[in-house]
Predict the 3D structure of the following.
Amino acid sequence: MREKREAKYRVGVIGCGRAGTSRARAFDVHPLCKVVAIADTDAENLALGCRRFGVPGYAAYEEMLARESIDIAMPVLPVRANAGAVVAAAEAGV
């Protein structure tokens, strides 16, 4: 039997529509990762993601990056917005 390890990497999800939720689940079931926060501009997606993962949510990913201690930022956004989220995460030290 494999030993369950304590989560080592804290994941912040940026965008929790269908694709973002699917990828967040993959991180959340990994033994070394834990989803700790979600950001989405769509209030319905945000509320659903927060309930699903039991984590705080943010309407702006910039606020999530500033407030949460995360090791991995996972942006799953439309192409035109994705680059900005990647740059913001890098500038936040993630």
The CA atoms of residues 37 and 56 lie 5 Å apart. Helices lie at 18-29, 43-53, 61-67, 79-91. The beta strands are 9-14, 33-39, 57-58, 72-75. Residues 79-91 form the longest helix (13 residues).
